Amino acid sequence: MLVAFMTVAVAAMVLPPVFPATLAAARVPMWGLLIAVAGGLVVLVTAERAVPRRILLGGGWLLVVSVVLQAFVVGDLVAMFATWLAVPILATLAGQLRPKPRKALVAAHIVAACCWVGIAVTISAMAVVAMTTRDIHTSRVTYELMAVFDLTLLPWANFATFLTGLAVGLTTSWGLFRYYWVAAKLAIAVGILFVAFGFLHDALEHAAARAAQLAETGGSPAELGTSAMVAFWGFGGSTLSLVAAVLLSLYKPGGKTRRGRRVLTGRKQPVVPAVLADRREIADGTIALTVCGEDRTLPEWTPGAHIDLVLPSGRVRQYSLYGDPADTASYRVAVLHEPDGRGGSKEIHDLPVGARIGIRGPRNNFPLIDAPAYLFVAGGIGITPFLPMIRRLHGAGSEWRLVYRGRSLPTMAFGKALLRQYPDRVTLLPADTHARPDLDDLLRRTPAAAAVYCCGPEDLLAAMESAVARHPYVTLHTERFAASNRGDGQTNTVFEAELRRSGVVVPVPPDRTLLAAIQAVDPTVDLSCADGVCGSCATRVLAGVPDHRDDVLQADERDRVDIIYPCVSRARGDRLVLDV
Question: Quick check: helix, strand or coil at residue 362?
Answer without folding.
Answer: strand
